[in-house]
Write a structure and sequence with these properties.
13 strands, Rossmann fold, 383 residues, 15% strand, six-stranded parallel beta sheet, alpha/beta
Length: 383
């Protein structure tokens, strides 16, 4: 089978949600199925680290697609022509976009519909494109994959998609995320937090991540507990992040709020692994990979009680209303004061984390491709 893959989010040193999903799933598809040929479509010069094996043909298609107009040109012109040129049997697109005009069957991955629930968090041109074309992309695909049962139901509810046309393939977490020894925890607490315990958040900084409420809740926590606990925020400033930057720089407990920019996984795994707890109180998540990363480190989590997060955190987390600053602070206080509760959550971490694996997800994804192509051939034969 000749499988073309949209790999434009495979960017060296800049892998985030979609990039990690693409990297981990596609790498396993390539290595597990040497009998198949893979054509990788990049939109800029690629790094050799993403050419996982000899059964890959890398292709750079112009123009670099980082803007709605260029998205349209890239998929409807460049990708369409390349699919025909390389005689692909199927096109796998992991970023929620595909070519509406190509006749090549497509497997689509839609990670979430946050743009439908919080359109105000995106510039007009981005949300217009997403709201206009995402339902069309889903209808055009022969099958759509999403990353949680919550997101699957959300697509059914908002777009009326038939459930049988949707499959859930969960995210996983890198195996570098692991429980740290006592000595390792001490070393990394000294390195990143001056030797004190700390809560940690990791992810791109933009309104949907709810960092402003987290920072304000931390203020309440500090006033109530008067502890040396710190809050580490790890991630790049993304869109509409200026208020976040201002609050970090002018926080009432500024010395206890530490911001680190984007980190590579070999460093981030230690920051998370040494944390007292992960605080991840997003307004909306299709999955929430940092939650799983924390669980693999036996680090308990405080997460929002909405969208996919209860599905990921299970019995290893405390749940809070992300819109209620007092409630977020109360959960931070509860975890800080009740060591027995924290120990219970830690004991539940490996049980919950074991439910998710990139290896299993890659098998499930390939099964989706095979099943969808088989159904398409059967349908063609009966017509």
């Amino acid at each position: 089978m000749r499988i073309a893959v949209n790999t434009r989010f495979l960017l060296k040193g800049k892998l985030e949600g979609i990039g990690w999903f693409t990297n981990e799933i596609v790498k396993r598809l390539v290595l597990n199925h040497p009998e198949d040929e893979f054509i990788f479509f990049f939109d800029r010069p690629y790094d050799q680290q993403f050419i996982f094996a000899h059964n890959i043909t890398p292709v750079v298609l112009q123009p670099p697609a980082r803007h709605p107009v260029l998205w349209y040109i890239w998929f409807e012109w460049s990708v369409k022509r390349a699919l025909k040129k390389y005689q692909a049997d199927v096109f796998v697109s992991t970023d929620g976009f595909l070519s509406l005009s190509s006749k090549v069957p497509s497997i689509l991955v839609v990670h979430d519909l946050a743009f439908e629930h919080f359109p105000e968090h995106l510039p007009f041109k981005f949300r217009y494109y997403l709201q206009k074309f995402t339902p069309e992309f889903i209808r055009k695909s022969i099958h759509t994959v999403t990353v949680s049962a919550y997101s699957k139901q959300d697509i059914v509810d908002l777009y009326g998609t038939a459930p049988e046309k949707l499959s859930v393939v969960y995210n996983g977490a890198n195996q570098l995320y692991r429980p740290l020894s006592s000595d390792e925890r001490i070393f990394f607490k000294n390195k990143y937090a001056g030797g004190t315990e700390y809560f940690v958040f990791t992810g791109a900084l933009h309104p949907r991540k709810n960092i402003l409420n987290l920072l304000q809740a931390f203020t309440i926590f500090k006033k109530k507990q008067r502890s040396s606990m710190k809050l580490l925020i790890v991630g790049r400033y993304a869109w509409k992040s200026e208020p976040i930057r201002e609050l970090i720089e002018n926080h009432p407990f500024k010395e206890d709020v530490i911001h680190y920019n984007y980190m590579q996984v070999d460093e981030l795994c230690n920051v998370i692994g040494a944390a007292y707890a992960l605080t991840f109180v997003s307004l909306f998540e299709g999955f929430g990979i940092p939650v799983l990363e924390a669980l693999q480190c036996n680090v308990p989590v405080i997460v929002s009680d909405n969208t996919s997060l209860p599905e990921v955190a299970g019995n290893a987390g405390l749940y809070t209303d992300p819109g209620d600053i007092e409630d977020i602070a109360a959960k931070m206080c509860m975890l800080y004061k009740d060591e027995h509760l924290r120990d219970q959550l830690i004991a539940n971490c490996p049980i919950q984390a074991a439910k998710f694996s990139w290896d299993k997800s890659a098998v499930d994804f390939y099964d989706c491709i095979l099943k969808s192509m088989s159904e398409l051939r059967l349908k063609s034969d009966t017509q």
